[in-house]
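Task 17 of the worksheet. Students: predict the tertiary structure of the chain below and write it out as C-alpha cells. Keep your answer in the requested format; marks are given for formatting as well as content.
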Amino acid sequence: MNTASIKETTDTVLEVKGVAVVILNWNGRHFLEKFLPALLRSVECFNTKGILSEGRSEVIVADNASDDGSMEMMRQSFPDVRTLILDRNYGFTGGYNKAFERIRCKYFLLINSDIEVPENWLEPLAEWMKRESGCGICAPKLHSWQDKDMFEYAGAAGGYIDRYGFPFCRGRVLKRLERDEGQYDEPADVFWATGACLMIRSSVYSGLGGLDERFFAHMEEIDLCWRAQLAGWRVCVVPQSTVYHIGGGTLPQDSPWKLYLNFRNNLLMLDNNLAKTYALEEVKRQKKDGDKVDLMAAAVKGTRKARRTIMTRMLIDGCAAAMYLLSLKPGYFRSVIKAHKDFRRLRTVPEPGAITDYLKKNENEEIKIQGFYRGWMIPHALSGRKMKF
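Model answer:
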C-alpha cells in the first residue's frame, strides 16, 4: 500500500473513527525511526480492545515541509501510515491547525515525535474522556526518556500558572524536577496539559478555533487550555498513563529564538485570557457580596486589572533583559526586546465591550479556572520553600 500523501492545497479529508493520533514532524526523521514502531504497536493493541465504540484509531504523520528525508523514509519504512504533507513549515500551531482541518474524528491526540510510549498508554486517556463528559482536554504524566523515574520539564504531572503568566508544573518548578514517587498518582484538574502529548475533543478544538497561529510554537498549549477553561471545559491529567519525552528535539533550551518565542507568547497568552479571567472573578465577587450583578462594571475592572498585570510582567521582563545584558548575553537581551516589540504589534487589546459580551454569553455557566496561582511563583521558588499543590 502506498502512503496517502495529501498536499496542503487539496480538499481531501481523512476519516478516523476513533482517536486520530497525529505527529507533527519537522526534520525529525531519526525520532520517527526510533519511536514510531512502538507507537503503531500500541495503537493497534488499543484497537483490539474495542474501548471506543466509534471505531478504529489511527496514527497519522503531518509533515511541516521537512528537508531531512523524513517523508522518503516514511514511504520506504512505514508505507501503511497515512501522511499529510504541508507545503512549508507552519510551526507547531499552524501545522496542527492545517492537519486537523483535513481530519475528521471524535478525538485528536497531539504527540511529539520524540516521545516513547509504553503499550497501554492510550487506554486511560480514552477511557477518561468517555467517562468525564465535562473534560475537554487531558494528558498523561510526562517522564524523562533519559531518566524514566524523573518527571520531564515540558509538562510533568500537569501545569499551573501564576498571576504574571509564569508556568510551572506538579513535579517541576523552574528547572527543579522531582522524582515520581507516586505523589501525583490521582487524576486532577490542572491549568494546562502538555502539548507534547495532549488529547482533545475535536469539537472543543474546532469550537476554540484551534491553536493561536500567532504563537508559531511554545506556550500555545497553555493558551489553548486557558481558553478551554474559559469556555467551561475541564483540563485534566490522567496519571494512569505515562509517556517518556526526550525534550528539546526541535530547539535547544539555550536558543535565543526559543527565548524570544517564550517571552512574546507569554504576553500574547495573557492578552488573550487575563481580562476574561479577572472579569469572571469580579462577577463572582459581586454575587458573593450580594451586590447587583453589573457585567459591564466587571468587564471594565477586569480589563483594567489585566492591563496593569501585563504592564508589570513587561517590567519584570525588562529586568530580565538587563540581567542578560550584564551577564554578557546580548543575544538573549535582543530576544526579550524583540519579543516585546512584536507583542505590541500582534496583540489584540481586549476591550470592555467584548468582555461584557463574553460574560453575557456565559452568565448562567459555572466557570471555574483551575490551577491559577494568585501569587508570583519565581521568588517563592527561589526561596527554597517547597511549592504545594
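Marker's comment: Residues 6-10 have pLDDT under 50 and may be disordered. The chain has eleven helices and 17 strands.
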